Model the fold of this input.
Amino acid sequence: MTSTPPAVELDGLTKSFGAVTAVDGLSLRVQPGEVVAFLGPNGAGKTTTIDMLLGLARPDAGTVRVLGGTPDDAVARGRVAAVLQTGGLLKDLTVGETVQMTAHFYRHTRPVAEVLERAGITNIADRVVGRCSGGQQQRLRFALALLPDPDLMVLDEPTTGMDVEGRRDFWQSLRRDARGGRTIIFATHYLDEADAYADRIVLVRQGRIVADGTTAEIKNLAAGRTVRATLPGADQAALAALPGVDTVEVRGDSVLVRTADSDGIARHLLTRTAARDVEITSRNLEDAFLALTTEQTGA
Amino acid sequence: MTTLSGFYPGVLRIELRRVLRNRRTLAFTLIMPGVFFLIFGLPQGGQSLDNGRPVTAYVMISLAVYAAMVATTSAGGAVATERALGWSRQLRLTPLRPAAYVATKLVTAMSLGLLAVVVEFLVGAAAGVRIPAYVWLLAGLAAWVGSLVFAAFGLFIGYLVPAENVMQFIGPILAVLAMFGGLFVPVEVLPDVLQQVAKFTPVYGMGVLARAPLTGEGVSLAAVANLVAWTLVFGVGAARLFRRDTARV
Done:
């Protein structure tokens, strides 16, 4: 082998459930060491894609390569681990026993005490799983995923059901742990998580990738900025006719112009009109998310 | 690390600890059969079978078979709970092979079955049952090995219905089967029609085999055929459902 194979290579992945196409010709390549957010609304096909990526589901068409081999191969060698929404835990085992038992299934693992520590659950090792909170159970799943010291870690909506503090703690432990070289792919519908923790965002809608790039690139894709000013009696049609203007919205005395050329619009407003209180804001990721994941309407 | 087709001693230890922590399992497999013996067996102290051996031993061996079948069924049936909870899906993310998982469940079931037989025998011995050593040994061995039918039955049910509380509706079924198998009262006291039906129910064979060392009656071909046939029925049934369960969709 002359070069390291990609961590993940999905090619033309398609999967239908009856008449519903959950994943529709999805192709994606993830390089080792990347932290990728799989972002999309519920029902976008994130979980189905992850299931195929892990070998839990078989694609109708297309191929999956994980770390240069098949998903089953990667799982069997402990090179990929996952925190899944559907992964159940045995309620009558303690947290520590769950990790110990799982450790027996691998050829080599990190020490049990170490993964408990890294997942931040050492203090509840003797607690029965059935009496753990949702967040604690999620950390336990994370601890299980840490056991084989995997090259690729896949997390499907890992912080669902956690409160704000729990989510922050969880991501902190994940980040602390993200040592060089480990590839991380996580699905989420929390924009701030994608923004804060991923190097790269893959936006999916209706089983297809609609955008793929760095956080900054995704924001730019949704194009431009918003210029807001106080301008009583604004001439909406005249403003809309200016070059580079996407939309113009008048709310009472305020006017909001969405544009790719915020400098030009600001200059126009300040020099040719009576506008004051001019503000320029870049659209946040949420706007980009909405723009890219909802159906385009109108012209 | 898979050794001997995926048998994991470390896992077995945790599994057994887990089973023994379950009050319900303890009550139904270890305590209840012993209490049954004290209630229904002891009052018959002093009475003898045709060959002069004590009736209490007959009751004790029957209840040991009952204890073993409840124990192995519940341990096999644990698969239902684990499927319902999604644990089997979690396991698919580990190198554990599904066959090794089933093997571990089977060994856990048989370990619990052995424990159930031993506990029942200890209760009997403590309460004064005296029989030759070879009868203890052979009867115990037959009760234990025969309970393999129900380990398979438990797995079969476990793959048939993914429900957390599967034992709640299997329990009464086991009681009915135990009656047909002559574990609560001798089959001979049942009406004639039921006696004929009883010969084809899954407990009959293991009951006859387990009591044979005590009664000195020969082991009929029908009893052996019964045991083998039901083991095959449940074993093959469980294997087919298991294969369906682990198929990727």
